[in-house]
Amino acid sequence: xxxxxxxxxxxxxxxxxxxxxxxxxxxxxxxxxxxxxxxxxxxxxxxxxxxxxxxxxxxxxxxxxxxxxxxxxxxxxxxxxxxxxxxxxxxxxxxxxxxxxxxxxxxxxxxxxxxxxxxxxxxxxxxxxxxxxxxxx
Length: 137
Known about the structure:
By secondary structure, the chain is mostly helical. It contains 5 helices and no strands.
């Protein structure tokens, strides 16, 4: 057989797409709801950081995927992250985590958006996004 004039492309392995299973969804939901309840009752920086980390991971995942069906969820998560940045600025100035109702509502909406979008993501995408978030912090 004659050789093709076209050179062969290098093999690039693609990551395996493993869906987020119900047990992992429950773990995310528990972590988010507990941290959100702590933020509502007595805001502490640990609960704030836990919510921020999950919002960052899912936000980066949605940004990287660029799927149109998830765009609205991405916008909601970004609004929650923006509210958290405002609260973080106040924390750095005063040393206390204090949230008003107007700051808490976008965060609660972002948490709900995260839980809605989680079944549509893959574990691999979340892992890659987590590695990026850890490198950026």
